[in-house]
Design a protein that fits this description.
With 246 residues, the protein is an alpha/beta fold. It has a single domain, classed as Metal-dependent hydrolases (TIM Barrel, Alpha-Beta Barrel), CATH 3.20.20.140. It has eight helices and eight strands.
Length: 246
């Protein structure tokens, strides 16, 4: 049961469903150390990234963006099985980090992933068109994952044509989400993720273990798409191989 996007540190073995694998992401220097110290696990890839909202956090400590980017490149280079992510653009932080600056940063980080021949995990919030146009212009030749995808079927098709796989998080079950009613006609490659521990919970939903969150998401997605959990697992495991080198 593959989880295409969760955060570190890595979970304990007793928390995991059978045949588990994951992409474990980070969004800035504070999280890099957590996953750098995590033990290697089969079918798991650790990812080192930088989101725009993290810039203010390390700027307040006197750290320079160029130094942080150099540290990130060195970390990814030395961690030979790592990937780049999460990286991206987020309109919620447009006031503190202007979108033009966000686009320049993510373009540079995609370029870093290309130069090191590593997969990249994309974070996009209320800026689908901007990211799509960037990918069309750059045409990266590396595995790309668009995590937490909630966009249109047409955007999913365009992303697939660019070699980018979309990943669906529990946020798709939020009331009013348009994609929720179209999952059964989504014909492009899809992975599933939890975004744990920042996952979406329905109003009034009791806290659950990581294992239960992942298993529930698979069951609900299988029901929505008219397939079995076993078939869904096999399909996701196949798509995940390009990201895990398995």
């Amino acid at each position: 049961m593959f989880d295409a996007h969760r955060h570190g540190p890595g979970p304990n073995a007793e928390e995991l469903p059978p045949r588990w694998g994951a992409l474990i992401a980070s969004s800035g220097p504070r999280q890099w150390a957590q996953i750098a110290e995590s033990p290697p696990l089969p079918n798991v890839r650790y990812c080192y990234g930088l989101l725009p909202q993290e810039i203010q956090a390390f700027s307040d400590t006197g750290m320079d963006l160029e130094q942080v980017l150099q540290n990130l490149e060195k970390l990814i280079t030395t961690q030979r099985d790592s990937a780049v992510g999460e990286i991206g653009i987020d309109d919620r932080f447009n006031q503190t980090v202007p979108m033009n600056s966000q686009l320049l940063l993510v373009e540079r980080l995609i370029g870093l992933a290309q130069s090191l021949d590593r997969p990249a995990i994309l974070h996009v919030v209320r800026a689908d068109g901007l990211m799509l146009n960037l990918l069309k212009r750059m045409k990266p030749r590396i595995p790309l994952l668009w995590h937490g995808f909630l966009g249109s079927l047409e955007t999913a098709r365009e992303l697939a044509s660019l070699g980018c796989v979309v990943s669906i998080a529990p946020s798709v079950w939020r009331t009013g989400t348009k994609l929720q009613d179209r999952l059964n006609v989504l014909q492009t490659p899809v992975l599933l993720e939890t975004d744990y521990p920042y996952h979406y919970r329905s109003p009034g939903e009791a806290p659950a273990s990581y294992k239960k969150i992942l298993e529930h998401h698979y069951r609900r997605f299988a029901q929505a798409t008219g397939t079995s959990v076993e078939t869904l697992e096999r399909r996701c495991d196949g798509y995940a191989q390009v990201f895990t080198n398995q």
